[in-house]
Amino acid sequence: MYTVLAGGVGAARFLRGLIGTVDPAEVVAIVNVGDDLDRFGLRICPDLDSITYWLGGVVHPDQQWGRADERFTVAAELARFGHDDWFTLGDRDLAVHLHRSMRLHAGAPLSAITAEVSAAFDVPVNLLPATDDRVETRITTADGRDLHFQEYWVRERGAPEVTGTHLAGAGSAQPAPGVVEALLDADVVILAPSNPIVSIDTILAIPGIREALHQTPAPVVGVSPIIGGEVVRGMAHRLLPQAGAEVSARGVAAHYGDLLDAWVIDDRDADQVADITATGVACTATDTLMDDPDVAAALARTCLDLAAETTR
Ligand code: FO1
């Protein structure tokens, strides 16, 4: 079993590569739910949905989240009533949120609903939300505000200076059914090239998950989200420094610390391989820019090969 800790787009691209090189039925993705929010009374799960749409072959090709061939009839009609439209929901996307929300109101856990949505889109891997409980990534800003992650990132376009992040609700949350088992029974655990602070750390913040990663006999291999000293997309370059981490392949490896047995970095950062290896983490450099599914598959293969050479 290949168990992947996953955020949104970066993880989706990596998973598409992984299923190009191993049996998809052997892949479990444990997905961040800290970005989730309620809009118009509906539960939106951006990372679960981005992965679903990517692996279901229906993702919007330019945005890389949301649906291809989308329409915005409902959003336009909601604007008629003066509803704030900073978080845009397309008509096709809305059907998923309606289904999810109806099922949540009927008492179904998010993990069960995620399985239903995955099946409806023929997603070939097992997607698990990190938790069925409600958790929320909160961003504190230099001007003294405490924002939901999506208020910071979408409504305010990532402009405010960030002084801290935390996962509200994490203390009382439990891993979703199957999450701890997927870590303990894995042959390899992979940290996808997702945002270390607001995607991977938010999964690790659920009590029991970090412990299972320490306990698992499987090698833990991560993929650096940094390429040539920069993030490919998103805001990790703004969030890493406030967490005390350098914005570099080496810096993210140090941030994950003793969780990692192996670390795959981009060719453009290959001068850091020796530094990382010196910390006791096996390291190799390859092409990690996953524009092409073949590159993503080769990257996944490199991760598995490095993990096979690595002892815990
Ligand atoms: N990102 C935006 O920049 N603007 C939006 O209006 C927006 C709507 C949206 C709706 C559903 C969904 O699943 C994702 C959506 N996103 C939007 C993307 C999302 O906010 C972020 O890319 C992720 O949460 C970051 O991982």
Outline the biggest β-sheet: 7 strands, parallel
Chemical compounds bound to the protein: ligand FO1
Total individual domains:
2
Structural class by sheet pairing and helices: alpha/beta
Give the distance, in angstroms, between the N- and C-terminal Cα atoms: 17 Å
CATH architecture level-2 label of the largest domain = 3-Layer(aba) Sandwich
Task: Please tally the helical runs, counting DSSP H or I stretches of 4 or more residues.
Answer: 13
Number of strands: 14
Helix content: 25-40%
Low-confidence stretches: none
Side-by-side strand order of the widest sheet: 5-2-1-9-10-13-14
CATH homologous superfamily placement of the largest domain: CofD-like domains
Taking all residues together, what is the mean pLDDT? 97
CATH topology of the largest domain: Rossmann fold
Radius of gyration: 19 Å
The CATH class of the largest domain is identified as Alpha Beta
Strand content: 15-25%
SSE order, one letter for each helix or strand = EHEEEHHHHEEEHEHEHHEEEHHEHEH
Summed up:
The protein has helices at 9-18, 46-55, 73-80, 91-105, 110-120, 149-155, 179-184, 196-204, 209-215, 236-242, 249-256, 273-278, 293-309; strands at 2-6, 27-31, 37-39, 42-44, 126-129, 136-141, 146-148, 162-168, 188-191, 220-223, 226-227, 230-231, 262-266, 282-286.
